[in-house]
Amino acid sequence: MYTKIRGEYILHCYKAENRGLDQEIFELLCDQYHRQPCHQAMGFEVTYLGKGIAGLRMVTDLRYTTKGERVHGGAIASIADTVMSLAASTCGHIYRTAEMKLNYIAPVYARTELNAEARVVHPGKTLAVVEAEFHNSEGKLIGKSMGTFFRDPRTPLGEEGDQV
Questions:
Q1: DSSP H/E element including 46
Q2: What CATH architecture is 2-156?
Q3: Which pLDDT tens digit goes with each residue over 46-57?
Q4: What is residue 67's DSSP assignment?
Q5: Nearest-CA neighbor of 154 among 163, 145, 142, 144?
Q6: pLDDT tens-digit profile of 125-146?
Q7: Alpha-carbon distance 51 to 57, whole Å?
Q8: Residue 159 pLDDT class (50, 70, 90 cuts)
Q9: Buried b vs exposed e over 116-147: b needs ≥16 C-beta within 10 Å?
Q10: Which residues contact 160 (CB under 8 A, 6 or more apart)?
Q11: 58 within 8 A of 43, measured Cβ to Cβ
Q12: CA 109 from centre of chain
């Protein structure tokens, strides 16, 4: 189902939970997020969005594994970058990655669910600091991440050409 917002039809984000974010911003972020080929290819799903917070889910498969069916660290880094950028963007502007650190705590195996949650620690005027945690479907901590994201002044949220 589509809704017309700011003169454009956008896809509803039925699976994601809106945790207090302005509905228009919520739908714009979900729509822009789901249009990204990389996000589609990796199988990321938005689970929730709120002011300064975001959740993503990924069901891992053999395409992202190395020896022993362990998920490659690059796939985990990709979901880390994505969930932190999305959390920053809930503040009303598009944010781009400036720097990111990731600690791998436990392995992730194929055919398991990986849940990522991020929250903005510092929503500055030009830079946002965001942290994230990753858990498997049993709730075990898999990793932690922190990143710095810069606000892109050329792309206020919702303008043509923006991508989350």
A1: strand 45-50
A2: Roll (3.10)
A3: 999 999 999 999
A4: G
A5: 163
A6: 899 999 999 999 999 999 999 9
A7: 19
A8: low
A9: bbbbbeebeeeebbbbbbbbbeeeeebbebbb
A10: none
A11: yes
A12: 20
Backbone angles phi, psi at 140, to 5 degrees: -75, 135
What tokens appear for 102 in the block? 């990731």
- Average of per-residue pLDDT across 9-25: 76
Residue 160 is given by DSSP the state: T
Neighbours of 149 (CB within 10 A): 27
| Domain ranges within the chain, ordered by starting residue | 2-156
Residue with tokens 């892109």: 152
HSE-CB for 117 with a 13 A CA cutoff? 8
Place of tokens 């993503």: 56
pLDDT greater than 70 at residue 42 = yes
Q: Structure pTM?
A: 0.86
